[in-house]
Design brief:
Blueprint lengths: L9 E2 L13 H29 L4 H4 L3 H13 L4 H4 L7 H18 L10 H17 L3 H18 L5 E2 L1 E4 H24 L15 H19 L7 E5 L4 H13 L16 E6 L2 H16 L1 H9 L3 E7 L1 H7 L1 H22 L2 E7 L11 H6 L10 E3 L3 H8 L2 H20 L5 H30 L4 H8 L28 H10 L10 H10 L2 H13 L1 H16 L2 H8 L5 H26 L9 H29 L5 H18 L4
Parallel strand pairs: 1-2, 3-4, 4-5, 5-6, 6-7, 7-8
Helix pairs in contact: 1-5, 1-7, 1-9, 3-5, 6-7, 8-9, 8-10, 11-14, 13-14, 13-20, 14-18, 18-21, 21-22, 21-25, 22-23, 23-25, 26-27
Length: 663
């Protein structure tokens, strides 16, 4: 058991309020309650096996004095367990002790406030440790390693809370709440000073908006939950759309106003509530190092950093940066932000953990996790990394125990390799300087092309809404939140998840590759040396190799012959042809350049397992796509029945499963 804990688990199911009106304070309470019950049920299920197997008699193994003393203490404290204890022989001390453990676990699950219940996971671990020590001291080392060490490791990892629950809300909501409260205080003060003594009518402030009231109610509930549940169950609050230190300070003010301990407690029992700024757009990724430098050097924030042991978590958004600037620019700007944030953290004496908000699809930062971790900037990894696994990914990566172990093993192995990897040597420095200049140039070209052809192109949104089932997503019941952040119908207000979902369902898979071919071709056209440099980067620059690998996976899942059928759903013929022709040209250009740089004759030539998997799945997915096109045509022609909506939802789920991606 000398190995440290190397993995922890988290969730934001029940905590992510960003644009989701259905996540209420009661949802958060239920999420914590469910997680607690799941893990306590798991621990309780282990006790019968221990009771069966720890049957050693003290007549044979000797009497452990520590265990005997602990039993006497429990006999005095837990009289309700006496009947169960007496069912075991007086010489079976391990079984008798485990009966008390079972009693305390049951109370912890069903009546946490009961005097017999374990108050903390540490108390449960202390009892297991006592059992282990007595076994070890009486020639039971192998039994302890086999039966108790795995359970002790689980208690260390999961505690009584199973996982941490991250909260999340958009910076706009936090700022609006602070503004409304400040306006209310000013109004009340003004009313108090101008009120007529003979007619004391105060100018009462306007009540807060529903959104602000809900936010304050949520934070008050968090303060209560951190008292009722292990305080470490809620330790992070992600601030979507963070653009300045003021966004972080807004959360701190509101949380402390509502009674939430933001700073960690001195005894370490409560880790506090750390604000985690999430930088999502290309502009925000570029400015986040300066924002964090200002925040981490500020005197008012220093007290919090010191309380957290100079630790800080920052989240980088893959989905929105891709939607904002395209695949190549998103990957490059995240890489640069990652590197710059670590440099700023070193300047400010901060131990930084980067939270990578990767989605399931390539267009949302998905792809092989091991490869992605190794593609991080050299020297910019301190041993802590946090990664999202999309809900759809959980089923096919973790539902099977062997696969779950394999995937966790790959993440840990990649992290250890990245941690032990040397920083760029002087020999590699010259090569990296060339690669960085090339990436900067290609990123600028890709960004301009993507903004011109996609983000700022007025044809794209009507094409997207017509040629994809994004408007029918609600029928599939697989979306965790509304498709848009607000009432606006513009592209900027559309969330990244439905954006990727629509292109994936319609087999365009555009976010995974668009703009990459344009940038590669422009760079390679300059002269032969530039094309050779691209091949050199593919061999020696992990980020570039990972980027091309992910683009290749996305293109292999695309099928523009199927996408053509979806395009026919767009009513404006001229618009349809303009956009689809532009998509075809860039797809062909990207495929051609990808094969030239990687030295392949066809996509996935060097990944035959994935190529075979896609080839086997497509005959089942293609008919679903054609059925979906027909159902969309009928629905948009005015047919509205439960049967049609059910069938449409079935095709959405079927295509998602077949492509192994929803978005």
């Amino acid at each position: 058991r000398e190995w440290p804990r190397v993995v922890r688990f988290g969730s934001w199911i029940g905590g992510d309020r960003d644009g989701n009106p259905y996540v209420t304070p009661e949802c958060t309470r239920e999420a914590l309650q469910l997680a607690r019950r799941v893990i306590l049920d798991h621990y309780s299920a282990h006790i019968p096996e221990l009771l069966d197997r720890l049957s050693s008699s003290m007549l044979q193994a000797g009497t452990p004095r520590l265990l005997e003393s602990a039993l006497a203490d429990y006999a005095a404290r837990l009289p309700a367990a006496r009947a169960r204890i007496e069912s075991f022989s007086s010489f079976e001390l391990y079984r008798r002790f485990l009966a008390y453990v079972a009693r305390r676990l049951t109370c912890a699950r069903d009546e946490p406030a009961h005097a017999d219940a374990y108050a903390t996971a540490q108390e449960f671990a202390a009892d297991l440790t006592l059992l282990r020590e007595t076994l070890t001291s009486h020639e039971g080392e192998r039994i302890a390693r086999l039966l108790l060490d795995p359970l002790l490791r689980q208690v260390e990892t999961f505690g009584f809370h199973l996982h941490t629950l991250d909260l999340r809300q958009h910076a706009r909501v936090l700022l609006r709440a602070v503004t409304e409260l400040a306006r209310g205080i000013e109004g009340a003060s003004a009313g108090a000073t101008t009120a007529d003594a003979a007619a004391p009518e105060l100018n009462l402030p306007e009540p807060p908006t529903h959104e602000t009231a809900t936010l304050l109610d949520t934070l008050r509930t968090v303060a209560e939950l951190k008292r009722d549940y292990p305080a470490e169950a809620i330790r992070s609050f992600v601030i979507s759309g963070a653009r300045s230190g003021a966004d972080v300070r807004s959360l701190v003010r509101l949380a402390e106003l509502c009674g939430v301990r933001v700073a960690a407690s001195e005894d370490g029992a409560d880790p506090g509530l750390m604000p985690v700024p999430l930088f999502e757009s290309i502009e925000d990724l570029r400015s986040c190092p300066d924002i964090c430098r200002e925040l981490w050097r500020a005197a008012d924030y220093a007290r919090l950093l010191d309380a957290w042991g100079r630790r800080q978590e920052v989240m980088l958004g893959y989905s929105d940066s891709n939607k904002d600037g395209g695949m190549l620019t998103s990957a490059w700007e995240i890489f640069k932000a990652h590197r710059a944030l670590h440099r700023v953290a070193a300047e400010c004496g901060v131990n930084l953990t980067l939270f990578h908000g990767r989605g399931g699809t390539v267009g949302r930062g998905g792809g092989p996790t091991h490869q992605a971790i190794l593609a991080q900037p050299a020297g910019a990894f301190t041993g802590h990394i946090k990664i999202t696994e999309q809900g759809e990914v959980l089923n096919w990566k973790y539902a099977d125990k062997v696969l779950a172990e394999r995937n966790l093993e790959l993440m840990i192995a990649a992290s250890l390799e990245a941690l032990t990897r040397d920083s760029e040597s002087e020999t590699n420095a010259a090569a990296f300087a060339r690669w960085e200049a090339a990436m900067e140039e290609m990123s600028a070209d890709a960004f301009r092309f993507y903004r011109e052809q996609i983000a700022d192109n007025p044809d794209i949104l009507p094409y997207f809404e017509g040629a994809t089932p994004v408007g029918e997503l609600e029928h599939a019941r697989i979306s965790s939140r509304p498709a848009r952040r607000g009432e606006s119908r513009g592209l900027e207000d559309l969330r990244a998840i439905p954006w990727v979902f629509g292109w994936m369902q319609s087999r365009h898979v555009l976010p995974a590759w668009f703009g990459v071919g344009h940038a590669l071709e422009r760079f390679a056209r300059r002269d032969e040396q530039h094309e050779l440099l691209l091949q050199e980067m593919h061999e020696g620059f992990p980020l570039f190799a990972d980027l091309l690998s992910n683009v290749e996976i996305g293109m292999a899942k695309a099928d523009l012959s199927i996408a053509r059928w979806y395009a026919e759903l767009v009513p404006d013929t001229n618009l349809r042809e303009r956009v689809f022709q532009m998509i075809i040209e860039e797809f062909n250009r990207t495929r051609r350049m990808l094969l030239r740089v990687t030295g392949q004759r066809q996509l996935l030539e060097r990944n035959r397992v994935l190529a075979r998997s896609i080839r086997l799945r497509n005959p089942y997915v293609d008919p679903l796509s054609l059925i979906q096109v027909e159902l969309l045509r009928r629905k948009r022609a005015g047919e509205e029945t439960n049967e049609l909506n059910y069938a449409l939802a079935a095709t959405i789920n079927g295509i998602s499963s077949g492509l192994r991606n929803t978005g």
